[in-house]
Amino acid sequence: MRMFPARLRSWFALCCLLILGACSLAPTQPLPPRQFDLGGAQLPAAPGGQPVQLQDCSAPAWLDTTAMNYRLNWRDPLQLQVFRDSRWVAPPCALLAQRLREVLTGGDSPPPRTLHLALDRFEQDFDSTSSSRVVIRLRATLMVPGTTPLARSRTFERELPVADPDAAHGVLALSQASDALLGELRAWALEP
Questions:
Q1: Is the separation of the CB atoms in 103 and 45 below 8 Å?
Q2: Which fold has domain 35-189?
Q3: Strand, coil or helix: what is 14?
Q4: Which of 63, 72, 119, 152 is the most exposed, fewest CB within 10 Å of its CB?
């Protein structure tokens, strides 16, 4: 059997190395995005009194998804962006509604006040590469039954700094901001 010339053996070895290298560079399955919720409400249950029921919560199309939104205010404050590897388990309106129902006074009699919410902002804003804060803004309309039904409206907004500028710490800050905002909203809704 005749031996391969040295030059041919070198080419053969190089081809084998390239094939093995290509196998190691094959694309791997990307990890699924991490999913977050707001956790359980940290507010005590509402005191007794006039029952309030949450009727609905609406949001514009860009907030009516499970995407986690952020802005790079230091670069382009008019561009809303989405975290690639993090998602909400449900749209923010659904998360807030669930949290609020946990702490509102229930009941049907006397006829309850009904609460309608419209979520305008629920995002993390980066003011620099090392500093961020969360912003929540929603409008609430309270329908009070009576001989002359009464509607009251108010806008609630809350901002909190984020300990570390990443998605996971943004979720924690949004959870804390939600509790503070919903506590203020609940007190307003239960006013006589």
A1: yes
A2: Rossmann fold (3.40.50)
A3: helix
A4: 152
Give the pair of three-digit tokens for residue 105.
């006074």
Residue with tokens 């053996």: 9
What is the DSSP pairing of strand 67-72 with strand 113-128?
Answer: parallel
In the chain, what is the greatest distance between 2 CA atoms, to the nearest angstrom?
108
Task: Retrieve residue 135's tokens.
Answer: 């912003």
List the beta strands (DSSP E) in the chain: 34-36, 52-58, 67-72, 76-88, 113-128, 131-144, 150-161
Residue range 130-155, pLDDT digits in tens:
999 999 999 999 998 876 778 899 99
Cis amide bond preceding 110, omega within 30: yes
Q: Are 106 and 114 in contact (CB under 8 A)?
A: no
Q: Which residue has the tokens 């509402």?
A: 46
Helix/strand/coil percentages in the chain, nearest 5: 30, 35, 35
Question: What does pTM read for this prediction?
Answer: 0.80
